[in-house]
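Dear support,

I submitted the protein below through the web form. The confirmation email said the job was done, but the results page showed an empty box. After a refresh the structure appeared. I'm attaching both so you can tell me whether what I see now is the final result or a partial one.
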Amino acid sequence: MKKLTVGVWLLAQAMLMSCSQLSTDNAATSATSEAGAAAQGLGLKLELADNRYQDKAQSRAILTITNNGQEELPAKGWKLYFNGGALRSADSTVAIIQHFNGDLHYLAPGPDFEEIEPGESATVEVLGRAVGNVSNFPVGFYIVYDEEPGKGIPVSLEVEPGKHFDEATQQFAAKFYEANAMIQDLPATSLPKVFPTPVSYQEKGKPFMLDAKVTVVADADFRREAEQLAEALATATGQKPAIQDKATGKAIFLRKKPGMGAEGYTLSVNPERIEITASSAAGAFYGVQSLKTLLPATAFSGKAATVEVAGVEVKDAPRFGYRGFMMDMARNFQPKAEVLKVLDVMALYKMNKLHFHFSEDEGWRLEIRPLPELTAVGGTRAHTTDGSSIVPSYGSGPDASNKAGTGFYSREDFIEILKYARDRHIEVIPEIESPGHARAAIKAMDARYTKLMDEGKKEEAERYLLRDLNDKSEYRSVQGWDDNIMDVSLPSTYTFLETVVDEIRSMYKEADAPLNTIHFGGDEVPGGVWEKSPAAQKVISQNPEVKNTDDLWYYYFGKVNQMLQERGLYLSGWEEIGLRKEVKNGKVNWVPNQQFADENFHVNVWKNSPGSGAEDLAYRMANAGYKVILTGVTHFYLDLAYNPTYGEPGLNWGGYVDIDKPFYFIPYDYLRNLKEDDRGNPLDRSIIKSKEALTEKGKTNIVGIEAPLWSETNRTTEDFEYKLLPKLLGVAERAWAKDPDWAKEKDAAKSEKLYSQAWSEFINVVGKRELPRLDYYAGGYGYRIPTAGAKVVDGKVEANVQFPGFTIRYTTDGTEPTQSSSAYTGPIAATGPVKLRVFNAEGRGGHTITIQSQSSM
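What the results page shows now:
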């Protein structure tokens, strides 16, 4: 084996693989297509040799390149591309690492690189920042030969993390154990049977027996809700109940009654009848959802002809009118069927806003008929040299056939999604990312320009251009792009946006779906943008209110706001659309922009990380007059890893989010319950002592809560559902339910006691009722099964689980625990490693964790 000692910095920020079933044991992990490896004959292995190199937060790893093919890998004439991190070469001449664009990089042989013969291997030493979890490694490797620059060939990667995480695994397992020990295992019969928590709930009287003879009686305005209820009951009893105008026996009634509010309802169950009353179809719908959660989880398995429905009296209405989830299908695509499943689970838990994030740097996913290039080019990721696609990102690889990188929703698809959402009282809010995060659109319009210029149609070619062709500005976005910002000084940019907006409006009209707002992004535009754009300088020279490129920001959103108002819509965006840059004492500060404070801007405020200076930004913007949707990264970013263990997939730049984070969020006083920094350590409370509190006026501007699920590390539906659930249940509870007693209690000790009681009840409801329901509901969801908590006590391994009702199984012979392995019933005496794994009632297991018993340590 050749040793090509190459000092390179590997800032590995990309994802590795689908990790939903990855063990926290440090087994070697395959990242890409074995079929691709066989086709090429090359294989890569990355071994983590040191995760604290030179006693700093950096790693040293060995990259082994093995030639399994029939021909030598030449000493020059190729590039090995991959996604993840910003790479820079060091002192060696053996290999060169270059950043291409975005998260795409390549390794190319240097002048001293030697060819690798068939059957031989060579190693390259790489340095980088310390690895936190599996998602910190590069991914999506493929090789391109200079003689065929438009052809990329996938290359497999195997990762060997070594034993660098063993000690931390033991520590985290003990931390999980201590947290789980605070949870009381409550009898299932004592748990509330409606979720999220209603305003008023009482169990009384005998149950209603649901069988195939029961009918549904509905007022005319609730006919659609009655039909949906009948479909759900058909799953439970095996027969769809008839929908009638009046009862002929035992029945479920949907009655209209004035004065109950926009989304309020009552639900009454006794042995003779079930009655839902509401003033609106939305209220009736939420009453139906509560009735569905009253049913035992197994009712949705289709195995019981008769179902017992507990006798209850419920009076309910939501706390917030905006209960949102943001689905990112742009960075990595999710099929239409998955969008419909998301709408199903949102509806069940009474969430009513789907933020549809269909455009990004890495993908444009919605068909716009006048501009077919948006999906033909912007919806395709592949290694090409002719501008027919955008570059591979997030491990999508060189081929356009990759389902995560390539895909879009046709007009017909989107209209179907809109109708499906409409029928479930969910408003779909489309997002046109602008002016940043727009590379897919920019490159698509570049392709259109090139095509029409070749046809001699200069005026038409320039009609939708999104960049000044003479712009020499230099910038780099947070995600590594140097060409992803629309030029807001170009008239063609607004022509483009108007065309897209009007086409979207036509789809909503055809679907008969509500459209009140369009989200225009507005986040993460880097410095340096537009500074050398002749078009921008022209706008500055002709508009006295635009004094510099910073003012182009307000110029842009003023024009977009006007465009939407002319169409009867209001503007939504990330917090930056309502901020203004101020420079004081040489320091840049972002403050609420009074220019737009009374324009009904709805802002998703995500910046609240402790130490960022923006901990109170949501409150400052609400106090200033903006309509604020609480979207804080610390509690609601579902793409963040559940915890800091190595085997837990997901990003960690904003901390860690498990189901407890949204659950213990206090909307009107979240500064009180910022408990951790972005590393998961206890927060220094002095950081937030001087922050701005929410005023009474500001409270009226908090319109709701939203949880985004960004898709950088989601290349399959399994990846997506793993991060979505069960976290979404915590979001649904906090968006719907009123402030719990512990959130209102001022005495810290009393508040903590009340919280502990509420947390135990919530986690029991999730573990014993809602997750078992989601095994079947809408075809079943691949929610995350928690990792066991464990610690060594008096030489024996003790274990527990986050969700009562789940089962821990273990082995002591080194094999992976399966459904047939021994169930944990008490402390385990062992002389070697103990492997523990949690299983749900259906026999699906989570991550395995290995604990070294004291005698084996």
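Response: this is the final, complete result; the empty box was a page-load delay. The domain at 200-316 is CATH 3.30.379.10 (Chitobiase; domain 2).
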